[in-house]
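Weekly structure sync - notes
Attendees: PM, LS, DV (DV joined late)
Agenda: review two folding runs queued last week.

Item 1: First target. Sequence and structure tokens pasted below for the record.
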Amino acid sequence: VDWSGSGSGQVEVMETNEEGCDTTVLKDVHEAHKTVPAISEADTVCDYTASHTYSTTNNSGHTYTWSVTNGSITSNSGNSITVYWSGNGSGQVEVMETNEEGCDTTVLKDIHVEPKPAPAISGADTVCEYTTAHTYSTTNNIGHSYTWSVTNGSITSNSGNSITVDWSGNGSGQVEVIETNEEGCDTTVLK
């Protein structure tokens, strides 16, 4: 029997013997309500990132069984999990919600795991103290933003993926760039 929904139903059978005598029997059936969980959280995440929380409504007395592909569950609190995404490409979050009557529903959420940028800073490693106009750059990726900082020097011009630095004093200095792609995935490198 395919049941059409929650509520109550009946199964009836009538048995007739060869003499034409019959008996009818009814059985009441309770049709338990199946909940349909909905998974919250973003569909696009950055690879090799943690603390992505996925959840569904917490229904009292229900159990939740979670699984992920292309990532790992780092914590599970019943109707909510935290995931670390590894690698880029596609991933998936799945939850099966089971009610008190044993009725269950499974839903899937496809996740796009976006690669992080991989900037590499080019420019001089050794410079003379109090010198100017040293250029440092990384590959220009269209749509990406670049945030630069330096220690023991000052940025005199910034054209996105390239900066010019005036170095002050002797000792060590440092150039840092944070490259961020359109999805908000970022990587920081130091030179």
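Item 2: Second target, run right after the first with the same settings.
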Amino acid sequence: GVHAHAAYDVEVPARWNGDLVMYAHGYRGQGTTLTVDPPPFGLRKQLTAEGYAWAASSYYDNGYDVAAGVKSTHDLAGFFEELVREPRRVFLVGVSMGGHVTGRSVEQYPEFYAAALPMCGVLGDDHLFDIFLDQNLVAQGVKSIQLTNLAWGPITINGSTATATSYETWVTTFTDSTTMQSTDTNVYTLV
């Protein structure tokens, strides 16, 4: 659907537990086409299997526009009540630039989200981050870095603490056409 100048997707499983997970996507480039995707790399499947509804917004603008992500995600979470009903709790998860959107969202709306999981987010000055990243990548002869797989372990919630494990596989391509694969395991605990 479309809400507040942004596309959105919402999925509520048949055995909904009453909780809503908002998904904040990463950087989409500078183009003018707004697109929305479900949570990637098995996260959508994991959420719905455990009874969580999820919703995702395209944001009303592309580019590295964290404010657009914060506003569009929050607007959609509020609109969910009209579409379905008021959720018991609202969680927020974001990957890449979506991690930055997630961090900024809990700062701007601290009482709205029950917990948040920012992953790979630039949680500070993104301009300085870009300069340092560019210099490091050029110095190392890196041509590209691509996330090729992201798998999720079980997501557990115990009282006000949530724990999730992700398994990330990355492929780095160098300017001489060689590649290197690496795997990261991340355990996230939210209190």
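Discussion on item 2: The two ends are 33 Å apart (CA to CA).
Action: LS to circulate a short write-up before next sync.
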